[in-house]
Amino acid sequence: MKTNCKKWKYLLCITAVTTAFASIPFNTQAADTQVRLMDHTDKKQETTSDKMNSAENRNQTTITAGAADILDVDILSAEIPDGSLAKVVNSDASDANGLIANNSETHVSTKGEAMSKFAKAMMVLQPQIQPESTLVMARVNEYVNIRLEADQDSEKVGILYKDCGGDVLEKNDEWTKIKSGDVTGWIKNQYLYFGKEAEELARDVGVLTAYSETETLRVRKEPSLDAGIVGLLANGQAVEAISEEGDWVRVSYEGETGFVAAEYVRVEFGIDTAESMAAIRAREEAERARVAAEAAKKVEQKEAVIASASELEILAALIQCEAGGEPYEGQVAVGAVVMNRVRCGGYPDNITDVIYASGQFVPASGGRMESLILNKTTKASCIQAAQEAINGVCNVGDALHFRRNNGRDGLVIGNHVFW
Questions:
Q1: Residues 6+ apart with CB under 8 A from 381
Q2: Per-residue model confidence as pLDDT tens for the chain (419 residues)
Q3: By CB count within 10 A, which of 44, 51, 90, 383 is most buried?
Q4: Which of 92, 108, 129 finishes a domain?
Q5: What total of structural domains would you count in the chain?
Q6: Which residues, 6 or more positions from 138, have their beta carbon under 8 angstroms from its beta carbon?
């Protein structure tokens, strides 16, 4: 009996020990499994978070990076016009096949095509920037010097007068290189208008000019071949154009409104340009020669001086070309503007040079004034107005400019505004 009890005790002890050892690996395995599951979950979460962060970074790169930066990132995303999401992949990536659109499953085999499509997508996303105008206008009361180099002590190559302009060739923080007429050089930025300000001023002071391209061009009272004739223009002669109206161009002819057939004229919009130092020296030399010749004639035959194309005749011819159809007050006003310029330091100091300065008065470059002077056909009222202006009569204050009245601020006399 005692032997059987001992056997049962040994059996129970062995069973207990076996059960205890068996439970230990099971619990350890379960714990290891739990740890692995948690680690795996955390890694999945971490991987997902990394991917989201990576996607965010790539999306930010797409918005902020320019098209030129496409080679510096592995994958860029952009929304293309059809709403699908396109990805651009570098050629050295593991899946470097170009561009795949999620919706259309379109496959592009080359990176160049992918870049082209990406550029088009970026054009949709980013606003198009218009290039800034290259126009510049003088920002001065009288004139500014144009220098050969961007240096205050550099050689002076020309002069840009008030209301004159040109084109930007190069610009830095302090100086701008411009081309105006036949003058190229540097001007300090503080003396120039740029961009919209320059364009607004150019529209304000610029002039439309119509050049005759036929032997004899009739200026008519109305836009009709049956209308009366205001006057005639020879080949190459110029008049101010007011507007282009289909087959006709409305012009100002001797202060009156007329019409010329559009097919027989060349219409150009222009602004006054700079004058080179060579042209200024030539003009000054010609003036000295003219004054010397006039002085010699006065000594030899005083009575014959009036018969020459004197400054009175030149001014009278200009007045007729600009305001021949205006009331007498308007004719005097045109002459007064010329004389104001003669007295102003920013212009030449004599009538001839003021009138014939480059780009200042359309009739001076169109040949009509010379025709009036040579044929002695200048109106008596214009000659009288010129004489009064020379004698000091002035009805426009300090005005240095005039043009056909376009609504701008200034003194309005007849069909012109003076400022």
A1: 328, 331
A2: 545 555 555 555 566 655 555 555 444 443 343 434 344 444 444 444 444 444 444 443 333 333 333 333 333 434 434 443 433 334 344 443 444 334 444 444 455 555 555 455 444 444 455 567 889 999 999 899 999 999 999 999 999 999 899 999 999 999 999 999 899 999 999 999 999 999 889 888 888 889 999 989 999 999 999 999 999 999 988 888 888 999 999 999 987 899 999 999 999 888 888 999 998 888 888 877 776 666 555 443 323 223 335 788 899 999 999 998 899 999 999 999 999 888 887 788 888 888 888 778 888 876 788 888 888 889 999 999 998 888 888 898 888 989 888 777 888 998 898 98
A3: 383
A4: 129
A5: 4
A6: 144, 160, 161, 162, 163, 164, 165, 191, 192, 193
Which of 244, 270, 296 is the endpoint of a domain?
Answer: 270
254: CATH: 2.30.30.40
User: Do residues 58 and 70 both lie within one domain?
Assistant: no
Residues 413 and 316 in one domain: yes
Strand partners, 170: 177
Query: CATH no. for residue 414?
Result: 1.10.10.2520
Using the structure block, give the residue that is written with the tokens 């080679």.
Answer: 71
Determine the structural domain holding residue 124 and report its residue range. Answer: 65-129
